[in-house]
Every structure is written in C-alpha cells, then in structure tokens.
Specification:
The protein is built from seven helices and ten strands. By secondary structure, the protein is α+β, with helices and mostly antiparallel strands. Strands 1, 2, 3, 4, 5, 6, 7, 8, 9 and 10 form a ten-stranded antiparallel sheet that branches.
Length: about 350
Amino acid sequence: MNEPASSDSPARRIGSWTLIAAAVAVAVASFGYVGGWLAPHRLTPEKLVDQLQDNAGTFAGYRRNHAKGVCVTGYFDSNGQAQAYSAAQVFAAGRTPVVGRFAIPGGNPYAPDSSVPIRSMALRFTQANGQQWRTGMNSMPVFPVATPQAFYAQLQAQQPDPATGKPDPAKIAAFFAAHPETAAFRTWAKTARPSASFATESYWSLNAFVFVDANSKHQPVRWRMTPEASDADNNTSKADDTDYLANDLTERLTRGSLRWHLQVTLANPSDPTNDATKTWPDDRRMIDAGTLVLEQTEPQDSGPCRDINYDPLVLPAGIVASDDPLLPARSAAYADSYLRRTSEEAHLPGTAAIHPQPETK
C-alpha cells in the first residue's frame, strides 16, 4: 500500500494551488485590465484581450469577459446623503434610471453557473442632464493584483496547457510566489463558493474613485451594493440547471422588485487609493447613499444592456478617477473587447449591420 501524502507534501501543495487557481482564474477573467498608455511593445489592450481569448477561447459576438449574463432595468432612489461629498446629479434626492447587467466571469457564454464562485453587477445611471455614471462591481472584496503588468502575467501563468487543457499548477505557484500581494485574495478564494442567486450577493467596486463636492473638495471613496434579499428567500430548484442564476432572477422578479443599498466608504488620508489588493479598515465612515431598485430582466442578446460598454471611466461631474493604475487599463481593454464583439455581431445572421460605437463621457 502506498504511504499517504503528508499534509505538506508536494502533491498536497500542488492540489491546493490548483484549487486556489480555479477561483483566481475567475477573478482574472472578471476584468480586462491593460494600460493604453503603456509602450506598445510591452502591453496594449489588443495584447491583453488576445491573451484572454487564448485562455478562454473566442465566442463571436460575445464579451471577452463576463460573456454569460442577463440585462436588468430599474432605478436608483437617492436619499441625498452622498450629496455632501459629490456634486453628481445622481446623488440628489430622487430617482435616476438604470440599465444594468448581471454576469459570471469568463469568456464562455455557455459555462454552467456553478463553475465559478464570483458574480458581477454592472450599472449605467443616466442623469437628467444627460451625463452617465457607469460602474462594474464584483462579489469579492479585493482584486488579486495591483497593476496591469501583474494582471497580464497572471493571465499568462493561467493559460491552459495544450496537452492537458488545464493550467500548469507549477506556473501558477511560481506566479503567486513572485506576487505576495495576491495573499488577501487567495485567502478569500479558499472558502468562496458559487452562490444560488445574483440577488443575494454584495458587489464591491474594488477600485477607488474620488467624489468632488460643489466646492471642489475631493474625497476618495469605494462603494459596494449590499442586498436586501437573503439566501432564505431563495426557493428555486438548482438541480441539473446550468442556467439557474438567470432563472432564479426571473422568478424572484415575478414576486416583486429587488433592492440593494449603495454603501459608500470614505477613505482616511492614509488609505491607499492605488492598490485594489488592499481593503480599508472596517472603522472607516460609511454612508448609505440610496437604494438600487431592479424591476425587470431580459436576455442579453436582445435586451437594453447588449450594446453598453460598462467602462468605469464614464463618470459624471462630481466623480473622478483615482490614481489606481487598473482604471485606465480596464477602460482601454473594455473598448477593445467592445469593438471586437460588435464587429462580429454585424456579420452574424439576423443581426443589424451597424452597431453604435462605445459612448464616451
């Protein structure tokens, strides 16, 4: 009989790396980060999106990340509490219409919902003055890496081996060893499990932004959406259902609207704004800025979210980007992915020949 592996054996360590890598790969696929300002021979949006396709495959007409998703519509009901920190019209008391999208990370639009432990929420708020606020959030409190270069290196380490169809655990372990900043995310990933519903998740902005008030005072912030629904509300069967998230959402909305509270965390001067791998201390002041109310869901191929590029740098007056290097990188890659998929859609049977270009600020 073979001797069982010890708790710290090479086999056990490789197995642990593989499990962690599966969750990390989801987060890696959840953002398309690359800095458009980087030298072309080092890193470009095209190069990074190509790598995403190498890892997940290419599905014509779909987003290169978050390919599987559904559209949602509703409104944001501001209570006016954030108006003291931001002059953005969305924070004035009253309602702002919202077009959003729930999704799971990855480039495969046919992936089972249970295959990944992370869910995403993207929103477009359209103010009465015509300005927009777009935000993409994920159901994890930190991002694995802090720079576009590290993100690209992580993608390379997780590219499937042609011989096995799976990432090489040794390459993943080497990447983690070279990037200790991934520790917080790896700790979270060890216990992360696929949830039963989009409606019961909290969604974090991950990146920091800056609110600007009517007197031009700047306040660094992060935000998250926290749900009113709980797992106890979920009575939908998930057995043998690869698309249970969309089905659950539809069923819940037949019983009434779904609500989240927009909770804004105000940074202290010492809190880092350029590192998405670090959380801010729990004692930071938090304000409830209002309630997101979602009333309807539609398929993404025909719904209102289909042609929206949820670029996080589309911001209204009163919100500006922080110094987080992932933000311009993320914007550049989103634009590249958008142009690829809409160009492909124009050549697919039954689709329009012309699609709108990405909207800008």
